[in-house]
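New to this. Help decode the following:
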Amino acid sequence: MNVTVSVTTFLAAGIEVIEMVAIVVAVGSTRSWRAALVGAGGGLVWWLFPAAAIGSTAVSLLRATMKPPGAA
């Protein structure tokens, strides 16, 4: 595993989280906190199921194709 790529990806994801929080705070302070939180919750639910499906499929494919060293 490349440590540089892992650290860079982690930091990029952190920046995206900060941007998401800024958007929720902006909507909450200008419109209503209920609208901001409902929108954030809806976005989370919207991406939860596809991410879970793609993730479990990817893990299954990796387990099926990768074999430990020395295995026949």
